[in-house]
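Quick note —
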Amino acid sequence: MGPATSPTETFVVAVLVAVTAQMVAARIRFPAIFFWLVAGMALGPYGLHVLQVESLQPALHTLIELGLAVILFEGGLNLNLKALQQHGRVVSLLLVFGPLLNMLIGGGALHLISGLDWPVCLLFGTLVSVGGPTVIMPILRQVRLNRSISAILASEAMLVDAVGAILAIVMLEVVITPEITPSSRVSGLAPSSVKTGAVGFACGWLLSKALASEQWLKDMELRTIATLAAVWGIFMLADSLSSQAGLLAVLVAGATMQRMELPDIQRLRHFKGSLSVLLISLLFVLLAANLNLPMLWDFTREGLLLFVILALLVRPLTAWLSSLGSNLPRKHVLFIGAIAPRGVVAAAIASLFAIILQGSGRTDGQMLQSLVYIIIIVSVMVYGFLAAPFSRWLDVRGADDRSVLIIGGGHMGVELARVLGGDREVRFIDLNAEAVATMQRGGYLAVRGNALDPLYMEITHAEEVSSVLVMTGSSDHNLLIARMARDEFHVPEVYVTLQEEDGQKHARLIHQLQARRLFASPYNYSYWNAEIHRKKLVHENRTIEPDSPLIGRKLSGVRITAGVQPLAIIRKGKSLIPHDDIVLQEGDEICMLVRPERVQEGQPLILPPVSDNSVAEKGQRLPG
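Predicted structure written out below.
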């Protein structure tokens, strides 16, 4: 590939590289930020020079600011306020002690190592206090942690960006305007933050009302574009009122909109999430390509030493102080104290500040940028590789082996949930409003939406469940959803229903996915849902007796009478999900939905294979 000489070529090549790196990261299940950094540095001016970032230099400042605005707004829009309320004290203390200790201890360490001025060192400390939801979220999804830990780490990562950015802005002004003392700038921080928060809240409320009215914004395409324009408008307005206040304002606006009753908030989140991912990946590739690699290499030793101090002293101390007085178990505190990756916001702010410092005539901007990037690279590698084994060692993994997510089952899914819900946590995604309402009235987590959109799996926290049951009326859709559950959410067990004619057609794909066929027989979605809707089915349980010829048989090998649908197998008090390879045992209780006439006739509902008919004729007892 030849060098991209024009700004257009550089931009397009950067997008292609960013998306390719994202695909590779998804394939090997590792945070994409690492591959964005490697690709950007390899293709930048100090590598192959395919990306001539200098052609974008005049617009890089603007691109960073607008990208950060969308990223933080999307973070506020997806902030789990319910989880934040449950763990608000711990998260709040993390947001206080984290930036403060990073600034003081991290900055103090840099001062001792390099001899730089205190304001510059404290600026470095604030830069490395900024977290990274773009890094922590893939780690949380891959490791499948306890929900409390996941909620705390995710909430901290979302909010610390704004807190760290505000402190960094304060220290930047102290560095570039020495006549302003830190104490005088900090004293004006609280009023400025309140004013910025009020602007963000008001703008978020007004935007929500405009979207809810649907008088001017009826089309979904127009609503998303208008929201994007409003986000940038909020950013510009807040920045005009107080220097560098736009980041906090858009975060507050996003969090405000989350609380409003918008009919298509999920679609809006999906659009903003997709745009945010594109901007994040593009920014990282361009910023990495713009790095001064010789300077990065020169400060590697100092950067590694600073990372060790931050990882082994600052973060554990932050976690311990934040957990005082809480009911968090000690092993949860240890894990929180061992995880603190930095991401795109830290990189973008460091790069933005390097440009500002260079413009003000200072020569230490690139050094700070290099040190921050070293911290980012090492933290991604260390936490990305060690999070899973450390979580196993501390036993803080949160996947409940009894939890199940039922997708697209309609009325049959509701009946299945009622049977499995006796000893399992059940979650539910469906387009059928009546089925979703029924599940919600029963106290289940149920969401109306199309599971082909990964957003709905995120809402139901599919990364936490141990089993996903996909049972829509389309075999092709079922397999697509199953692949997403396996590849993106790392669900250990995936079950799919297949229509009558699709069993052999999709057998190879099911094997590749390591999925299982639900119910161990072809499934007629329309028939069973119609029968349940008309109330033409009853629940029936049968127990396998000691002399039954079904003992030792796989469920796929027995004959299930027409009008009979197994829902679950109860074994030693625990429900098992029926699938092809489950082997029937003595004492198993088979829970079924059946047509009433089948029960009245008193005939067996499940029969052994045809070859065993002679056994049945000799008087062996069958369930029935």
